[in-house]
Design a protein that fits this description.
The chain has 4 helices and 5 strands, in the order βααββααββ. The protein is α+β, with helices and mostly antiparallel strands and about 160 residues long. The protein has one domain. The protein has a 5-stranded antiparallel sheet. A hairpin with a 6-residue loop joins strand 2 and strand 3.
């Protein structure tokens, strides 16, 4: 079956309940309960805190729009639309990472608003990957290239159920 690669995607339908979000920080600061004790990282008895991800929520349509607007290479024929969407999302993440000169990651968040997110950091590696002065430049480039989708959105923490 051949798909129109830019056919609008259906709105996100997530089956989460409010209790799934309890405890996820809403501000930009990583709370102590999610901070990793680096000195104990290799200790087999150390129980690391739950990993959370900092970035921006997106939907499949945002990736399709970006792909079309920036005229990224057409994907090869795919048998299923979800495969096509994954391929396009991967191309967009690679293109954005190159534009920002920063390794962004695609994560599937626990969210009722978004079915994807672009992660700048996760709580387990933020101590070595955190940008200081450059973070605002990365976010500015993301906003410019993604357009309206990030206009009213601030970076925030998300729980994840799958990370790529």
């Amino acid at each position: 079956m051949i798909f129109d690669i830019y056919e609008p995607s259906p709105p996100a339908k997530m089956c989460f309940k409010p209790s799934d979000f309890e405890g996820c920080p809403t501000g930009p600061t990583l709370p102590p309960e999610f901070q990793v004790n680096v000195a104990r990282w290799r200790d087999p008895r150390y129980v690391k805190p739950r990993k959370i991800f900092y970035g921006f929520g997106l939907n499949i349509q945002d990736f399709l729009d970006y792909h079309q607007r920036h005229q990224l290479p057409r994907p090869p024929p795919m048998a299923a639309q979800p495969e096509l969407w994954q391929y396009i999302a991967d191309q967009v993440v690679e293109d954005l990472s190159n534009a920002c000169e920063f390794d962004l990651r695609l994560v599937l968040p626990v969210s009722t608003e978004y079915n994807c997110m672009l992660s700048l950091y996760d709580s387990h590696t933020i101590t070595v990957t955190k940008l200081d002065d450059e973070e605002q430049d990365v976010i500015r480039i993301m906003r410019e290239r993604l357009g309206d989708v990030l206009t009213n959105q601030k970076a925030r923490w998300f729980f994840s159920y799958i990370e790529f």
